Amino acid sequence: MKIYDTKTAPTPRRVRIFLAEKNISMEYVQVDLQKGENLSAEMREKNPIGKIPILELDDGSCIGESDAICTYFEALQPEPPLMGVTPLQKAQIAMWQRQVDLCLFMQVGMCFQHTTGYFKDRMTPVKDYGVEAGKNAAKYLSVLDRQLQDNEFVAGDTFSIADITTLCSIDFARVIDVRIAEKHSALQSWYDRIAARESAKA
């Protein structure tokens, strides 16, 4: 099996960290997003919307979307669990994963795309929308800081995919100059611990 990947993009990094935590080796095929290689007919056969990453199995089956790829590997190799064990854990991790994805990761992405015009050859940037998305991302850091004042990890007492998404979101946010503020001491402490994990280098 192999994963179509872009080393510099934040979404594929989420999968690389997930697999590193599970000690799963993988062949990675690099795709140039800026040149639009992901939009080729060949790549759209693997994922109709042309997004990266894409997991291609040995039988030719393909799975797009980072969450779906991680879900596949969680089922394939449950240890160490990164998506919860008990029903409550699974639900809480899924909740925080979804919230971080929508309220931070996607907001950073929309700000980047709509204020920089990086993909203006394939979309119509709306600067005001991008600016508002950046503000939303910055505000959500306070939500995370409150959560981490009483919890070791984003979704509670265990490291999970929610932590991976949060780490990638915060690192991605540097491109729009959204950073952890001095008042976010709990979030900063969490970040320092998570960024020091070996998997963060993936």
Write up this protein:
By secondary structure, the chain is of the alpha+beta class. The protein folds into two domains: 2-76, Glutaredoxin; 87-201, Glutathione S-transferase Yfyf (Class Pi), Chain A, domain 2. It is 52% helix and 7% strand. It has helices at residues 10-21, 41-46, 66-76, 87-116, 127-149, 161-172, 185-195; strands spanning 2-5, 27-30, 54-56, 62-64. It has a four-stranded mixed β-sheet with strand order 2-1-3-4, covered by helices on one side. A hairpin with a 5-residue loop joins strand 3 (54-56) and strand 4. The longest helix is centred in the middle third of the chain and has 30 residues, at 87-116. It starts with a strand and ends in a 7-residue tail after the last helix.
Topology:
Blueprint: E1 2-5, H1 10-21, E2 27-30, H2 41-46, E3 54-56, E4 62-64, H3 66-76, H4 87-116, H5 127-149, H6 161-172, H7 185-195
Parallel strand pairs: 1-2
Antiparallel strand pairs: 1-3, 3-4
Helix pairs in contact: 1-3, 1-6, 4-5, 4-6, 5-7
Strand content: 5-15%
Q: Just name the CATH architecture of the largest domain.
A: Up-down Bundle
Characterize the biggest β-sheet. 4 strands, mixed
Using the alpha-carbon principal axes, give the shape.
Answer: globular
| Strands ordered across the widest β-sheet | 2-1-3-4
Helices, by number, come to 7
Mean pLDDT, to the nearest integer, reads 97
Given helix and strand content, the structural type is: alpha+beta
How helix-rich are the residues, as a percent range?
A: 40-55%
**Radius of gyration, in angstroms, nearest whole number:** 17 Å
CATH topology-level name of the largest domain? Glutathione S-transferase Yfyf (Class Pi), Chain A, domain 2
Element string (H = helix, E = strand): EHEHEEHHHHH
Domains counted in the coordinates: how many? 2
Low-pLDDT sequence parts: none
The level 1 CATH classification of the largest domain is Mainly Alpha
